[in-house]
Write a structure and sequence with these properties.
By secondary structure, this protein is α+β, with helices and mostly antiparallel strands. The protein is built from 8 helices and 7 strands. It has one domain (about 15-20, about 30-215). The protein has helices at about 45-50, 55-65, 105-110, 110-130, 135-140, 175-180, 190-195, 220, and strands at about 70-75, 80, 90-100, 145-155, 165-175, 195-200, 205-210.
Length: about 240
């Protein structure tokens, strides 16, 4: 697990998020280098959010690292980013991850939109629930929404070439929509209809996608064979 394909031919983070980032030093705790350092934020609002909720962000990154080992969170991708399609300095708590999965003929036979809908259904709702566990973060009036960016290997990509191509969905959910979903007043299909979803085929933007998503229990039922959670880590 953790043997992540080197990212070549995938969409740049700057094509999705307006915040510029540079690579910083890795920190000691697992997943800590996944959190954007405070000095990388470009606005006072973002710096305040990042400082106030630093612990919650590190807990999020660490929880995914320990409890969802088939997901590889990108470095410095957990933080308060401004979605590029918004004009104001709206700050969404964000996470970006790559899904490690075995090749599947059924998955490969889908269209890109069908694969995107499958990934949305499997990961976006459960990740929103994980990202909202910290009530202080969720209730902060300066936090405007959630971003979940999901990447996976394009089925036609040549693994042996060393230049794999990723498909990506960037899902932006405003706070009101996320709150309705988290309270159970709307379902996954409504979440996908209200979210702003962008698709990417490698570095090629596919524009906004309208996905027919559904409730998927994969995240609550899937277990990695022979994987043991580190002592003291609670994955409930």
């Amino acid at each position: 697990m953790r043997s992540v394909l080197r990212r070549a031919g995938q969409v740049s983070a700057l094509a999705i998020l307006a915040l510029s980032c540079t690579t910083g030093p890795a920190l000691a705790a697992p997943g800590d280098d996944r959190v954007l350092p405070i000095d990388q934020y470009k606005s006072e609002k973002a710096r305040r959010l990042g400082t106030t909720h630093d612990g919650a962000l590190r807990e999020l990154a660490s929880g995914v690292y320990h409890c969802l080992p088939w997901l590889e969170v990108q470095k410095q991708s957990v933080g308060f980013f401004k979605p590029k399609h918004l004009t104001q300095d709206d700050r969404y708590v964000s996470i970006r991850f790559y899904v490690e999965q075995d090749p599947s003929p059924e998955f490969a036979a889908f269209t890109m939109e069908q694969r995107a809908a499958s990934m949305f259904s499997r990961y976006v709702g459960p990740m929103l629930k994980r990202m909202s566990r910290n009530s202080a973060l969720v209730n902060d009036p300066s936090m405007d929404g959630f971003t979940v960016i999901v990447e996976w290997l394009k089925p036609s990509s040549d693994r042996a070439s060393g230049r794999p191509v990723h498909e990506t969905i960037a899902v932006f959910v405003d706070k009101a929509t996320a709150t309705a979903f988290l309270r159970g007043t709307i379902q996954t299909r409504d979440l996908s209809a209200r979210a702003h979803v962008l698709g990417f085929d490698g570095e090629t933007g596919l524009g906004q996608l309208k996905l027919a998503a559904w409730d998927d229990t994969f995240m609550s039922t899937y277990k990695v064979q022979n994987y043991e959670v580190a002592p003291g880590v609670n994955c409930q």
